[in-house]
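Troubleshooting log. The previous structure file for this entry was overwritten by mistake, so regenerating from the original sequence record. Sequence copied from the archived sheet and checked twice against the printout by T.R.
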Amino acid sequence: MTSLQNHRFRFNFHRRFAALLLAVAALAAGTPGFCGPIHEAARTGDLAKVQTLVKEHPNLVMSTDEKFGQTPLHVAAFNDHKDVAEFLLANKADVNAKAKNGSTPLHLAAAKGNKDIAELLLDNKADINALDNEGWSPMHSAVVWNQKEVQDFLASKGGTDLPAPKLPPPPPAPKAPKETGTDGGLTAYDDGTIVDAKTKLMWMNRDNGVALSWPDAKKYAADYRGAGFSDWRLPTLAELSGLYDKAKSHRTFCQSAVDDMGVSVDEIHVSEFMHATCTRMWTSEERSDKPGSATVFDFHSGKDLARPEAKDFVDNASRALLVRDVK
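Regenerated output below.
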């Protein structure tokens, strides 16, 4: 299990799967999005109601909610209602049904630590190494969410830890990068970089692509070799805020970018040359006003925020956007 433990930190990038769990947790509390009575009954564990609904309308077993594309079995698996899950499976629910993001009921059971549900699903021929749209396996969700009992159980059944694939590395830097466009003082090049003529900074044109902790963000920067350079670093707060432009607006389609009411706030204000996968970026700075915290900059609000600098804290909406000084 040593390799799995190493993976836990090396690949503790929650990207889409962490966003899924937050969304499902909100739905489990009754947030609008589950559109059918059978989903609500599966959420609360109301077996009698599920049975009545299926008797009247058998096709409801495979109905999906409009927002996430989850079946009643997904909902029962997440909320640990084994009797409901057993009934649904006995009535031809697809044990390997995939939601819009590719997650199966086993992904949700593993992430939540519902070993009894995981056993039931595997007994009904669930694919133990099914991959979601980002390449994540049920085992990986158990590792990331520290569900040790489920992790050991899946491993004993042949489960493998398959982390989300890394973004393809940028192409090797050509001898003379070709200019692909300008936006004010920013010039984009075909080697995946953007140069700011005013600040003399070179940016990568995309973030790392997945959520990560502050220590992992710093390590990502130290290890990065994009465009043939090895001196990439996390930017300062001033450098990141300098990219913010209220006049510009585009969406990240990041499911983790939500306000306190669960409403999407994935719109960011930065040049379209910057391909951000979510709204917040880690800075290189600790917070003097809040010991034990580091600073992130939010391209939606234009404000800086404090987040714990601990390795085991992952801000689901925060990424690493790297910069280097042009020499």
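The longest strand covers residues 280-286. Archived copy saved in two places this time.
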